[in-house]
Fold:
Amino acid sequence: KAVPMHGLVLWWDCPIIGFPKIDVSSIQDRNVSNLSLGSAANNTSSSSSNVAKKEAFQKAWDEAHDMFREKMKKKEKQTI
Structure:
């Protein structure tokens, strides 16, 4: 499936209408300037850590998606 905006991060100021709003600019990871870049070695370990996290998430997502598909195959169709 194509991803229309790869790497896009959307910051919501409130999860549901009626909830209190927050200042999203105060979130530490929101602004790249707030990130500690450190040395090249730190960047490499951070990058590989991010890649590992991304791969683990993708694997878990794929497994959950496969489980969902199997469940839907077995589900009886109901007429309304």
